[in-house]
Amino acid sequence: MGGRAKTRRVGVKKSRTNRSVLWAACICATWICGAMTSVLAADKLELAESATEQRSFKVTVRMDIEGQLQAAVADTKAVAMKLTGNAQLSYHERRLSSLGRDAADFRGLRTYDQAEFHSQVADRVSETKLRPSFRQIVAEGQTDGIRLYSNFGPLTYEELELLRPPVDSLTALALLPADRVEVGEKWDAPMWALQFLTAVEAVDKGELKCTLESAADDVAKVTFAGDIKGGILGASSVIKLSGHYLYDLKQHCLTHLELTQSETRSVGAVSPGLKVTAKAVLERTPSEHPALNELAIEAVPREPKPESMLLAMEARDWGIKLYHDRVWHLFHQGTTVAVLRLMDKGSLVAQCNVSPIGPAPAGKHIGEQQFQEDVQKAIGAEFQKIEKAEIIPTQDKRFVFRVIASGEANQKTSKGVNKVPVNWIYYLIADADGRQMVLVFTVENTLIERFQNRDINLALGIDFEPKTAK
């Protein structure tokens, strides 16, 4: 009896031990499975930056460009000219609150330390720099690229182009993946991000493929390559791009991007043809800047003031500044004439020629009848009649006289020459000192409705600079 009882006790104890071992094994298995799941989850990396995180970044962009610029000369075949250039941009940037989805999510306030572009086309060397008083810039994402403006006054057309290199700190962030990714994983960037990056206005087709190549030493490397075909300022364009960026897994930010972009663009109504390759390097480092404080951030409106969106054409030799809407593009600026062209949805709508003429005595100007006769002579055989002549009232001492004439202009086509009904709108603008400017708008009759009397605002945008004492 005693032996059997002892054996049973041993058996009971053994049974309990087995159950304990099984329970512990289950616990260990659950822990191991959980740990394995965590390890697998850890392999998926989140490459993202929060717009709400109040951080400032020091940004530098270096760019070199070379290739050919093609310009049409007197309706003949385009002439190719060698183009080389380099740009240096340096600024601090702090993200602003989002205004929407996709490109509209990317906004920033910047203060520039340096912004300059040196270029050479054939034998002509030029240099563009951002004026010191306009170094604080608001950058906002739009479907077709970055919209830039200053709260301190209108930028010039050249400054606007200067601040739009092939890669921007905000467009670069659009390349970050929306979901967690693992090493070796490939994905397609959304079309809006590709359009945002390349500033193509009307997209025909395109794709941009990304790959997480590696993740080591707290740095993830993503490569990308693709192309896009579409329209820029009414000209057809094909852009091919490739490069890579680095993401700091510890600081949770994009820190470096290298881009090679090749573009072939046809000659357009407001831009020359291009066959160029640009190589750009962008660096970003978390860094505070006293100008990007809370007061500065709060002062940025959710929608810019209309006057902030104007552009300024400076003509110091003529003693004027011309402020105009961004639908007008500066096509040419010489010593005797400046040419602006109005683009609407990729189409050329009108042209405006701006020229100085000889001064009149102080307080005087060309007579109204004489100016109408001069208009008729200038148009020549294409003139038919004066449709309207009127004085435009102003709030200062400028004299503004507007003359609308109609006629038929010769238009060259592949089949010969056609007669096209046209309106010419002439302005005589004079200040109290006798300085005089003439503006000539040319609009085809079929485009009058789209033109919407935009000549008036442009003409009234002329500002005579105060005369300096000799």
Structure description:
The chain folds into two domains: 56-306, Roll (Lipovitellin-phosvitin complex, beta-sheet shell regions); 311-464, Protein Transport Mog1p, Chain A, CATH 3.40.1000.10. 19% of the residues lie in helices and 48% in strands. With 470 residues, it is α+β, with helices and mostly antiparallel strands. The termini are far apart.
Q: What is the count of distinct domains?
A: 2
Give the total of beta strands.
Answer: 23
What count of helical segments does DSSP give?
8
The SS-based structural class is alpha+beta
Helix proportion: 10-25%
Q: Oligomeric status of the shown chains?
A: single chain
Based on CA atoms alone, the radius of gyration comes out at: 32 Å
Sheet of most strands: 12 strands, antiparallel
Average pLDDT score: 90
At CATH's second level, what is the architecture of the largest domain? Roll
At the fold tier of CATH, the topology name of the largest domain is Lipovitellin-phosvitin complex, beta-sheet shell regions
- Give the percentage of residues in beta strands: over 45%
Give the N-terminus to C-terminus distance in angstroms. Answer: 133 Å
